[in-house]
Amino acid sequence: ETGVTQTPRHLVMGMTNKKSLKCEQHLGHNAMYWYKQSAKKPLELMFVYNFKEQTENNSVPSRFSPECPNSSHLFLHLHTLQPEDSALYLCASSQDPRKETQYFGPGTRLLVL
Amino acid sequence: AQKVTQAQTEISVVEKEDVTLDCVYETRDTTYYLFWYKQPPSGELVFLIRRNSFDEQNEISGRYSWNFQKSTSSFNFTITASQVVDSAVYFCALRANFGNEKLTFGTGTRLTIIP
User: In chain A, positions 41-80, which contact chain B (CB-CB < 8 Å)?
Assistant: First the structure.
């Protein structure tokens, strides 16, 4: 596989469920990102990881918990979500968060019931 | 604070027509990068171009061209001889060259090419 992949592509979950989103990049990049894309809103940056270390948490509620075990993998653990958390969650990677272009995955479309 | 404005929410043109997508930005940084991304119905944001604020030369890539004008803080995108495959949402984005890693996106322009 090449580029940035995300699984699952679609997810429906209840408010009491726990689920995880997975992102994998095959580009040899050092930085990875989670974004949230809601209808009619700009993309919102959620988290930034650089060399597995979290460098930015953009005031994201604690019901979203990121994990970056290595530079190629990024997870977003979800628990007790709200219906307003329904959105497209996009993962991206770049060689360096300060300089380089970010490349995006296809996203996970999440519906919280 | 950074801001990107894409005033055109939706545009529809007939195939083979030219179309220009507008992008206006605000930043206090003296050096920055500007980007355009394409988001087809599949959802993935596809990188199209990155432009450094030092480089005001316009760029052409096939049917795509970009007009960067620092004086008006605009970075417009033109598709020549549009095709149905160009139908997508297009996002303009801005990032400072130093310090803040954050990529600020506009709200996007939905482009529909009518066959």
Answer: 41-43, 45, 48, 55-56, 58
